[in-house]
Amino acid sequence: MSKHHPLLQSFGALLVLDADSRHIQATSTNLEALVGLSASSQKITLNQLLGKRMAQRARRELQGQQRLAAPLVFNHGSDKQARLQLRAYRSGEHVIMEIEPLVIVGQRRLLGAINEQFIKLTEAANQDELLTYLVNEVRQLTGFERVTVCHFDPDWHGHIVAEAKDTQLPTLVGQRMAASDVPPTLRRAYARHPVRFIEDANASFEQLVPNDFPINLDASVLRAPAPERQCYMESLGVRSMLCVAMQRDTGLWGLLSCFSTTPHPVPASVRDAVHILVQMVTERLALLRARQEARYLKRVQDSLMPATSPHQEPQSPQQLLFNHADTWMTMFRAHGIALWIAGAVYQVGKTPTPEAISQFVIRLGNAHTHSGPWCTRRIAKEPLTSSLAMPEQSGVLAVPLPMNPAQRAWLCFFRPEQVEALYWSMQPTSQVTPSICNSPPAAWYEEIIGSSDAWQRVERLAAVKLGEDLTLAISSYEIGMLNMHLENERKALAAANQRLEQLAHFDPLTQVWNRYRIEQAIDTELVAAKRYGAGFALLLFDVDHFKTINDTHGHSLGDDVLVALARLVESSLRGCDYFGRWGGEEFVVLATHSDLQAALGLAERLRTLLTTLHVEGLKQLVTVSIGIAVWQSGDSCKTLIARADQAMYRAKREGRDRVEIADGEIA
Ligand SMILES: Nc1nc2c(ncn2[C@@H]2O[C@H](COP(=O)(O)OP(=O)(O)OP(=O)(O)O)[C@@H](O)[C@H]2O)c(=O)[nH]1
To answer: Which whole-number Å values give the CA distances from 626 to 1, 124, 399, 532, 601, in the listed order?
Structure first.
């Protein structure tokens, strides 16, 4: 509810009616001039004003509706020559009707222009082309001296991004409008009523009669500019202005503004056409933006693709950062990147010290518990970062990596200070002196310091996605490391087992079976012999005078003799015979499927063979004494060995270098 008596522009007349649109309760002072009726007349009815049929139609179409779907056109005057159009909407308990003379600008031309523009719009490949089409077409439709598009940044400063103008006017493209030019109240008003038209800011305005009638005229196209708006227009040297809000789902994206230094009538149909065009462009802009963002997101995601591929060797967090940092710095317009994982800091480019980064993420961890990104473009002013030593940094974007819920990891992008040189719009400068500007404001150029480039929504989104992918890559590396560790452990275990097996079954000096293993083999043969009657023989032999060899040539050469003997015997045996060291200089041959004759043959062959043994440095002949025991039913390992041992000692006693058969076994 306006506190002041509402003032109205005079390009149309305004009526306030009751909720049923039956009784006119207030009118603008120019109603008489427009439709030839006395404004002071409280007796006038809607029927008289519109004619009975039109009044009924207006009432019918408004029933249950907030506003008339489309303007109604009617003839008026004694000769019915005056053609007027009527718009109506509800304001609280009242109905407001606005009547404007119908100016025929050619409906077809307007529709044609919009159609044509629509085709051009769909052809526009980028924002610049799109907005250039818009301002040119709007200027052609309206005839304003200057048409601009101003885009708002996150701080609500405006930036002139497109313009169509009279050739003699200097350009304003690239200049700024202070956020105060479009204060929050005005922004909210644009959200509700996207079109604002002021035909002449200096005109004398109409009043409502009675002027104390309580009514909110915010939605009226006729409402006069507020005094501060008038001052603003005056400071710009502007008398007429048409502004259309460019609303996006995220809020007010920008403003299409048309200016004229002289009063500039714009018929309602043209204003509508401009509004439609602006809506079409805004939607198209959203589409272009969405495509651009999708491409950007894909590029960011693809940047880590090889590292997340299963065919790629997993890289450590440090390698991942070093390999991709250049690409990411370009994509995120950052001059440094840090990766903080469980207290370890990896850095590339210009970043704060590891200590400052650690302090920062610890504070973040406490203050910022949700999983989204955190950013600032003013490190020095932000409470969370202001006391941290972060020289050379103005902006930081930190993304938590969903690695370990107990201790989050962070990916941080750092941006330097970006001194912004701002040329404020409509300000006179030596180079830029718009002719529609009269009064010179004090400051026209400004440098914004202490802040970095803003972190765009899509950049924050991309950083989160990158964080997720990076987490995957790091996890796959950690799993790889764990697997490698397990594999090494497994190999070490297998090697240890092999060593144990070797120790358990083999003699460490000669590498032939040890006593334990040969006993196992004898036991196996005993079982087979018992079950299938497959006889076998045991040859136990001992090196003759081995002590002399040791004493004469040393223990080491004695060892060499034992090893050489083992190799020679091993190489001369059948694949089905077993051979092992019984202990000291005693050896056992287990001859499977052998009777006494075969065992004797083998023993003689071995005895003779061993006399040929050659060992470097050994001057004497190596001979062995061999005892033979052939399996007999009821034998155990012990009895068999004992018989062979007894035979071997007989061979020793009988003079050595000979073969003896155990007692009771006849050759
Ligand atoms: N170099 C070396 N000597 C060993 C090894 N095991 C046992 N000996 C030695 O072999 C010798 C065996 O000596 P004796 O038992 O007296 O028998 P011998 O000298 O061979 O005489 P006869 O068997 O009666 O012909 C001892 O001196 C042992 O120390 C070994 O692994 N390496």
So the answer is: 128, 106, 83, 28, 12
